[in-house]
Amino acid sequence: MTEVQLQEFKLEPDSELRFEVESKNEKVVLEVKSGYAELFGTELVKGKPYEFHTGAKVAVFTWHGCTVELRGRTEVSYIAKETPMVVYLNVHAALEQQRVAAEQENTRGPVTMVVGPGDVGKSTLTRILLNYAVRMGRRPIFVELDVGQGHISVPGTVGALLVERPASIEEGFSQQAPLVYHFGHKSPGENLELYNTIVSRLAEVIAERCENNKKASTSGVIINTCGWVKGAGYKVLTHAAQAFEVDVILVLDNERLYNELKRDMPKFVKVVYLPKSGGVVERSSTQRAEARDARIREYFYGKRTPYYPHSFDVKFSDLKIYKVGAPSLPDSCMPLGMRAEDALTKLVSVWPAPALAHRLLAVSFAAGPDDHVLHCNLAGFVCVTAVDPERQTLTILSPQPRPLPATVLLLSDLQYMDNH
Ligand code: ATP
């Protein structure tokens, strides 16, 4: 048995304790002993133990000073005095002023997009700004456009949440009733046409919802994006900025991207350059793949609060599975009036086969394949855990008991090995 390590840290005002949990099956417990501290914008309760597991990379920040205890084995743990938190707080204050103005003038609150290359802390800044807004009594909308390392539903989707309370320290933002659209790949580059289509659709639906929810509308929107910022990745960002009619773009740690956006965005869009935190940890492609896997596992089995998914068989003949995107033909071969890119958003019927094993299937709210499927949001996901060609059945892991709703299922590229 390994000895439980106990470390105590005294933090001065405006400093943060950074730690990482690396070893397999490791658990580290954090407790604030005195003073006040927050974790990515969520206040920590004094004397309450918080658990962190393998892969966690954490910063406990304090504005006023505090004492913190860590129990368990951390790979790295140190106090940093240099952080960009004051700059981030100023951004929050500026957004808050715009919300006050929106309330007084009965207009829309600030729509903010966070951009930057991989591993600069985009998701973390998004979380901090949402937490600060909701702590001020606002109800902002969180939009996740990162299909690879997103924080809503499972990877391979874009989505939105109305944030009504700060993110839970261990579980993130509450995932009740998110608005989710199917993409099915882990990078926008795998089908740019489809990506732009669903981003535009999400923007449209959010604009409609804001018309009926004044509180959300004045609180504004915070959009997290992918770390792909060059070439076609840049075009994807400018398309999203246009679709959401953004007011503010926060550029983390990339002067080239900042200058390009300054040049290309209309004058009324404020493009702001922000430093990244020295604490942001770079992740290898293996770590990214593990993080995606962990998100899918959490979707079915929960994180701190356990979920109990159902497993059952479904007959091939009872399923309507489609994938999005037919192979594209040159324009000269297309019927008159159709573009080659249109093929990329077409539904193609998929007959169940052993190759479906371990793949995720999105359960669409669309009633049938002609029902504007890409414009319909998702009810959720199931995972194919086994395929039996003899009995002509699939075994399905599902958050809901049988039967599967008799709707359209959309095949995702993402896989999950269920060995729970
Ligand atoms: P991606 O390109 O994958 O979307 P990102 O730019 O959104 O990445 P984050 O996910 O915000 O980056 O941060 C990367 C990792 O660094 C996360 O695990 C996060 O918890 C950690 N992290 C962020 N800020 C700090 C900090 N100040 N101290 C320690 N760890 C941090």
UniProtKB/TrEMBL annotation:
Residues 116-302 form the Clp1 P-loop domain. Transmembrane segments: none annotated. ATP binds at residues 16, 57, 119-124. Residues 308-418 form the Clp1 C-terminal domain. It is found in: Nucleus. Keywords: ATP-binding, mRNA processing, Nucleotide-binding, Nucleus. It comes from the Eukaryota. SUPFAM superfamilies: P-loop containing nucleoside triphosphate hydrolases. Residues 10-101 form the Clp1 N-terminal domain. Signal peptide: none annotated. Required for endonucleolytic cleavage during polyadenylation-dependent pre-mRNA 3'-end formation. Belongs to the Clp1 family. Clp1 subfamily. This is Protein CLP1 homolog. It comes from Vanessa tameamea (Kamehameha butterfly). The gene is LOC113402824.
